[in-house]
Amino acid sequence: MSTFSARIEGVGFWTDGIPSWDAARRFCLDGTLPGSAPARPSPQLLAPNERRRAPQTVAIALEVGLAACTAAGRDPASLPSVFTSTHGELGITDYTCTTLASTPRALSPTRFHNSVHNAAAGYWTIGTGAMQPATAISAMQASFAQGLLEAMVQLASGEDSVLLVAYDGSASGPLGEHARSQGLLGAGLVLSHESRETGPVLQVTLEAGAATVEGGRLHAHASGNAMAPMLPFFEALAAGAPSRVMLDAGGGQRLAIALRTGATAMESIDA
């Protein structure tokens, strides 16, 4: 059994109809949705032309990553990052497979390079000018849990702070029948050592056993997206009160997460 602790310095969030972490918190507390919301993120890290051409998963990953860094008051270029996605860009994967099966010479090199699983991480390092390591992982339904665990391990291994970005988009075509996902969903966390003064603290423990998760408003709102398993964690974080959450970590394991708030949060967890 392994246990790691960190402080949450900043949070970013975006899903259809809920375009910010503040909006997500309000929705969790009283069910209020914003009067209007953009149909898709518009990540300011990219030049306008690139912003329009970027795949939906890249757009949402950069949007929530930058929002988390801004909330934390961190320079995005200074942070090592972990990008986790269940499926990556399934729309482009479907296009690539269809084109290869029908008119392979018509395959677009631009769209092809956006099909790789680390496309969002690549756009992030280019857009921010970051020279720090960027990790891209997938673990199916355990993708958020494993991404969080990877970020926590990097902190325990000596990094001062780490950016975690989790995201998934819509599935389409034949792949959509097997790798189901609807809409856009993404979240970012800037995590640092618990010795810092402000922000909630989380303590995660990897243990054997199945995770039993009960979702709330956020989960019901975006349950069709492949990254929905992360939503109970963000619902607990939005509540702003001490809480515990279990997430599926895959392979018959679960990630037990304890959340505490306030400057003495670490002492509360250890007690």
TrEMBL record:
Residues 40-220 form the Beta-ketoacyl synthase-like N-terminal domain. It comes from Marilutibacter aestuarii. GO terms for molecular function: acyltransferase activity. This is Beta-ketoacyl synthase chain length factor. It comes from the Bacteria.
